[in-house]
Amino acid sequence: MEHWDEVRTAYNVARIGTVSGAAEVLGVHHATVIRHIDALEERLGVKLFQRHARGYTPTEAGSDLLRVAQATDDQFSQLAGRIKGRGNEVSGELVVTSIGGLSHLLVPVLAAFQDAYPGLTVRYLTGDRLFRLEYGEAHVAVRAGAVPDQPDNVVQPFFRQDFTLYASEAYVARHGLPESCKDFGTHRFVGADDPKSRAPFARWMQENVPAENIIFKSGDVHAQRRAILSGAGIGFTSVLQAAEVEGLVQVVPPKPDWAAPLWLVTHMDLHRTTKVQAFLAFLKEHSKAWQPE
Amino acid sequence: MEHWDEVRTAYNVARIGTVSGAAEVLGVHHATVIRHIDALEERLGVKLFQRHARGYTPTEAGSDLLRVAQATDDQFSQLAGRIKGRGNEVSGELVVTSIGGLSHLLVPVLAAFQDAYPGLTVRYLTGDRLFRLEYGEAHVAVRAGAVPDQPDNVVQPFFRQDFTLYASEAYVARHGLPESCKDFGTHRFVGADDPKSRAPFARWMQENVPAENIIFKSGDVHAQRRAILSGAGIGFTSVLQAAEVEGLVQVVPPKPDWAAPLWLVTHMDLHRTTKVQAFLAFLKEHSKAWQPE
DNA sequence: GGGGCGATGTGAGTTAACGCACAGAGAGAA
DNA sequence: TTCTCTCTGTGCGTTAACTCACATCGCCCC
After folding, report:
1. pTM for the structure as a whole
2. Lesser CB count within 10 Å: N end or C end of chain A?
3. Substitution target from B5, B46, B265 for chain A, most A beta carbons within 10 A
């Protein structure tokens, strides 16, 4: 049973009773309807209609087709309604991904967004690997670093995340603060575990801090911040994260060179949907407080 | 949601995951598949798939379509199986119509046919009006008289029904038998109620028997036979019917001029079906005993 | 009974859908 | 990295499907 359009044609003929009437409803010429019926009967090897001057009356097979196609028509109508409607409503699932270091900013916003749309389920993905928008793994991604140049991805600037060096009050009381790069040899540092990290502050540390002075390394920014707080050494933390923790002292003011630009990335096919647009607007609104100035 | 073929295309893309694979399954070029998807998405206003180099992955709307179309595909497959299969089996309903005077012959055959096919329901229609095959009122009709020339009807000769004049034994004992037409003026007759009857014996009676001698008239042949049997007069009855009744005496031997040819008529659209063919063969086999010689 | 109407059917012309060929882009392997 | 394979995407020519027009046939109403 291929050629579903022919089934639809036969369905309308059976429903209405005449070829002409069905042709009008279908918006095609009645000759087309006749050819569809003939082709379908030929393929099935059974007459679906008895032809007479007043129209077509379905045989048993035609009546059977009428019932099945009626159900199909209903199903498709409902489907079309759901699909068209869903394009304009915020429901189902919203999948957001970002680097782990942004969870303290995003999670409250996600929770508030879910609260605003009760029909919505939020999934927040963080992980080592990059979740790929083109495979439908997420609707929205928050990416850091250089402008993502993936084709089929819509990229918007989000905000600039400032970083600088922090130390715990206990560390300062014990070791003091370095006044310039020349003092780094006498201090201990907390840094990134990944030597290939492309974060600007991480590369700065690789170039300006002797490797042997980096005595605590972790791939997780939260672990690094905890290490700094525990007095393990001096290390980079985002200004916003540091502000939420008691007991951290800025070693130097934030430098623009250390800042990491953040980008909002969506897949082209999903970017126009109401759900994604609603979340992007919601996120931008709530992130105004995070902007540097 | 028009263009069910596009839904089928999208269904296969969602099911298989690639345009090329779906195109192969559908037996069309992959460009056609792409155009179908694009047209469907355009019409719905929602992306059904996320496109990437490895194939198409369904969005939520695409997944929804996949579910619905999967069910539709199943339904259509079952429908095709039923329709194709039903063409080769004898089941459902068999509707046979004839003039009322043939019921004593047809009913036993219909009962035996039903007994041979337990899945079958038989309907036997008799009535004043002609049941019309082209409106699907019956599968098979047994017609008398001239060759039916309805277009779209398949006509086969059935057998020749012989008629002649009968009288009851009581009538003969009381009035004797006429030896020729000249004696008709002294006899009483049972005849047809309808002066426009086209039956050859009825017209013969109109022409050869004085109207005032026809003292019992009925439209029903069974009533006429009963009247003859009750001694009301001389009248025509089919030879086969008369043979089943005790107490009837042939006034004259059957004449070919009085015989009524019977025809088996089916609608063109139903004639080829196994069910109709099975019944026609069954009926012909059982009617061999009725043939004159 | 006859004219009009609406239905089915068929042949000819036209449009739109399809197949073909090639370009481009990732993904995986050497 | 580079090569290769596969899949997507698009312009162009062709074919098949569709529209159009006309013929035909029944039915209904006048």
Report:
1. 0.77
2. C
3. B46
